[in-house]
Amino acid sequence: MSLSRPRKQANDFLCENSWPHPDRYAGFAAVPLQNPEAAADELERCVKQLGFKGAMVNGYTNVQDENTGEYTDEPKFEVFWPRWRSSTSHLSSPRDPSRASRGFTRDTRSF
Asked: Average pLDDT in the 15-20 region?
């Protein structure tokens, strides 16, 4: 199964269940950032066809498992960002560092 299919199904479900109450609900797309081109395509579909407001994006995305991630400022993601910026709303959410990188980051919660 492609990475895009479960996100497409989730986005379609959200659309079907939020349309009866457009004054109360708005959608943010689930996008497969493991494949930035597919993520950009799904975001565009959700905004243009389903009426979503944009997508929520974290600082990194898991690649193979919870211990392996790629930060979204790496060059492979450059194809995604212009299309994300052109969506109607932007939500970037901070996320704890991946397990693999925790040894390389400093815990700032004690400051």
From this structure: 82
